[in-house]
């Protein structure tokens, strides 16, 4: 028999569950004579909503069976009804649909951020955040020079790293180069958002400018 919770197809009929202190009362209401710590086999529908138990689900796209924690199935995130592979594909579609009436730049950035999230593994994401933090520390050391740059302190202008922090991270460039004053410019907020993770100059050009600055 198949169970449908929200819109997800769950294949398990019964499941082994270790009774916790909080779920004891709930289960007693269903007529179970249980005590905290008991291990019982119950129908899926009697599981507490927050149960961190993996259940078998069937992908809406490819019918492949995948495991997902029961508590996540309660969150009504539509992507969860797909196997990990199709979750990714469907996530872009859902996002685009949901942001149908949004500002195109905002939409583009959200999709880009989502792609970044899906396409880099956990460790890379953490490393990137660390790298960006270091670049921003280096950037801070140029505080005085930044305020003298063209368009500094203008309303709706934000500081941009011409060769992007993201590409600096990808290509293992020293944060001292990415955070260097020669890599900084003030851009209109909108233009900077459009630029996102892309670079507006080449690394060679940047290195050249930094070299010339030393003379
Ligand atoms: Zn699938």
Structure description:
With 215 residues, the chain is of the alpha+beta class. The protein is built from ten helices and eight strands. The chain is 45% helix and 17% strand. The chain has a four-stranded antiparallel beta sheet with strand order 1-2-5-6. Strands 3-4 form a two-stranded antiparallel sheet. Strands 7-8 form a two-stranded antiparallel ribbon. The protein binds zinc ion. Zinc ion (ZN) is lined by residues 59, 61-62, 64, 82-83, 85-86.
Q: What topology does this entry show?
A:
Blueprint: E1 3-5, E2 8-10, E3 14-18, H1 21-29, E4 39-43, E5 54-58, E6 65-69, H2 70-73, H3 84-98, H4 104-119, H5 122-140, H6 143-146, E7 157-161, H7 165-170, H8 175-178, E8 184-188, H9 189-195, H10 203-214
Antiparallel strand pairs: 1-2, 2-5, 3-4, 5-6, 7-8
Helix pairs in contact: 3-4
The structure holds zinc ion (ZN).
Residues 59, 61-62, 64, 82-83, 85-86 line the site of zinc ion.
